[in-house]
Design a protein that fits this description.
heterodimer, A: alpha+beta, Porin, B: alpha/beta, D-Maltodextrin-Binding Protein, domain 2, five-stranded mixed β-sheet, globular
């Protein structure tokens, strides 16, 4: 609330391009997006968008970047971003430091960076907030999904290698670090985050492969209470309840995150596609996810219409559902041995709620998107986009917040993107 | 006395003006310039392209850190240079640069307000590299490479930002 008015005013002011400042040893530049979005159906929400009214904050951002030469080969980069919508506990338009690193050029090919950086998950992850840098209103959410937000940046170091042979080029990056984010009662701690990626460019074709390994602790206080009840039932009644408790523990889990990206430029026509796979490498608590998108773009001078198809699937704790099923064999519903009626009801309700909770996190949706980007000025692009969601599984945690949602909806977004 | 304008000469002027509009603008020979004391012996076309794409940040052979200098983007030599060397221009170049800068890959070239300012900056900075119409070059800068206007130059790529 606090930041809303001055930032919106500054955002409007900066829509006048040409304000970038540059000197021999430093430069100040920035980007901004002013967006309006709306969903078609009741009871749904994406970012700040609902069916009520046009929301102006969901995708609106303002970013400022300072590049400083500290010494020969040594530089500092800082980027401050103010977002209308933040996934975590950050207030609307509260400025946050997304990049702050020193870079050192070791030789022709190698560069080292130390500090806070954006996690290089996909082709456009590092410029996720710079709408001007991509064609869409926002990168396709089936892949650039909310599940990636808890580790969208990291504190650590990376090593970048660039090489060329004729018209071919190869970029390689190795990285290591940690990250911690919180939202309401949820806290996600990644330590360590390790990974690397390769980008190969061959004339019209760009191929990218990325691998991240994340050791993750997830704390959700509501789950903590549920776990305590299963633990107590495990001690009192049967060890199978302790198994449920253990499978709900999201601490000390390794995730393997693989991504593959492709871009094919055929003159005016271009194709972009990416696919990802998140896999828990251990038993017990699991949250696996897969998704892909394929985007076709056709540029006619300043106007670029595009079409995107995408899918996203989340698989959550399937093993726990089985264990939960076993508890009914061992301890049938309504069994009163050792328990008062009140406790029997409490245990049965707990099992029903746990099943509902797990099932709600097993979802799949498909999306279809049409849109157009219009480059109205060398530094300004205007985009209009319509996205159709098919909630194949009835729910989708990106968009759906109510128990009985419609099985499809659509979202309309208009965005003005500026760089200066 | 009223001077009667010759209608045929007015028509000729119009015709000439129209023809000039249709003809491609005469391209200049472009000189790529560095500081007079820069020890670099030569630079390849590929290296020059990499410098202005930000993929090469030290002069070849373990040299100094490079500081690339651009002419203003409304200067004709700017477009000529980018089309012929970098093979990117217009919106594609802008999108590439936005991606490059805001993904923390490095700095963009500093912009000199005029060819004279370019020469001044090159004369003052041992790590500088710039380009300008060969007719504007003075002894304050060393020409490391010449892009002749006879070279056809490759057409700009219609590629997406990378």
């Amino acid at each position: 609330m606090l930041y809303r008015v001055p930032i919106m005013a500054l955002l409007l002011l900066l829509l006048m391009p040409g304000l970038a400042l540059a000197q021999q040893n430093w430069s100040l530049s920035g980007f901004a997006s002013l967006a309006a979005g709306k969903l078609a159906d009741e009871g749904l929400q994406y970012q700040d968008y609902t069916d009520d009214q046009w929301d102006l904050e969901g995708d609106s951002v303002l970013g400022l970047q300072l590049n400083l030469n500290l010494a020969e080969r040594l530089s500092l980069t800082a980027q401050m971003i103010s977002r209308g919508y933040s996934w975590d506990d950050t207030d609307a338009f509260e400025p946050v430091l997304d990049w702050l690193f020193v870079g050192y050029q070791l030789n022709d090919a190698w560069r080292m960076r130390l500090g806070r950086m954006r996690t290089p998950l996909y082709l456009y992850s590092e410029t996720l907030d710079v709408g001007y840098s991509y064609v869409w209103a926002r990168p396709p959410i089936d892949v650039y999904a909310p599940i990636t937000l808890p580790f969208s940046n990291f504190d650590g170091a990376d090593l970048v290698y660039l090489t060329d042979w004729g018209d071919y080029s190869l970029d390689a990056q190795l990285l290591a670090g940690t990250t911690r984010r919180s939202r309401d009662t949820l806290e996600i701690n990644v330590d360590p985050l390790l990974g690397g990626n390769l980008t190969l460019r061959m004339d019209q074709l760009t191929l990218r492969y990325g691998l991240l390994m994340l050791q993750t602790d997830i704390t959700l206080s509501d789950i903590g209470e549920i776990q305590a009840l299963y633990q107590a039932a495990g001690q009192l009644l049967d060890p199978v309840f302790s198994d449920v408790n253990q499978q709900l523990s999201a601490n000390d889990n390794w995730y393997r995150y693989q991504t593959l990206g492709l871009r094919w430029d055929l003159g005016k026509f271009s194709v972009t596609g990416e696919v990802f796979d998140i896999h828990n490498t251990e038993d017990g608590y699991t949250n696996n996810a897969q998704g892909w998108y394929l985007s076709l773009q056709y540029r006619i001078d300043q106007v670029t219409p595009y079409l995107v198809a995408g899918r996203h699937k989340n698989e959550f704790n399937q093993d726990t559902l089985q264990t939960l099923g076993q508890t009914y064999e061992i301890w049938p519903e309504g069994q009163t041995v050792l328990l008062f009626q009140e406790q029997v009801d409490q245990l049965d309700q707990l099992r029903v709620d746990t099943r509902a909770f797990i099932e709600s996190l097993n979802f799949e949706h498909h999306t279809w998107t049409v849109g157009v980007r219009y480059d109205i000025h060398p530094h300004v692009a205007l985009k209009a986009e319509w996205q159709y969601f098919d909630f194949v599984s009835g729910i989708s945690h990106f968009v759906v917040t109510t128990p009985n949602p419609p099985d499809h909806t659509s979202m309309t977004t208009f965005i003005l993107d500026v760089v200066f | 006395m009223i001077v009667q304008r010759n209608p045929s000469s007015a028509l000729l002027n119009l015709l000439l003006a129209t023809l000039l509009l249709w003809l491609p603008a005469a391209r200049a020979d472009i000189a790529v310039v560095v500081h007079p004391q820069n020890p670099l012996a030569s630079l390849s076309h590929q290296e020059l392209k990499k410098i202005f794409l930000g993929r090469l940040s030290l002069f070849p052979g373990g040299g100094r850190e490079i500081r690339a200098i651009d002419l203003p983007d409304d200067h004709p030599v700017f477009h000529d240079f980018y089309r012929r060397v970098v093979e990117l221009d217009g919106i594609e170049l802008k999108r590439y640069r936005a991606y490059y800068l805001f993904s923390g890959r490095g700095r963009l070239p500093v912009v000199a307000t005029s060819p004279q300012a370019m020469l001044q900056m090159v004369a003052e900075d041992p790590g500088a590299i710039g380009y300008l119409d060969i007719k504007d070059v003075t002894e304050n800068a060393r020409v490391i490479m010449t892009l002749s206007s006879d070279e056809p130059g490759k057409p700009p790529k219609e590629s997406d930002n990378r």
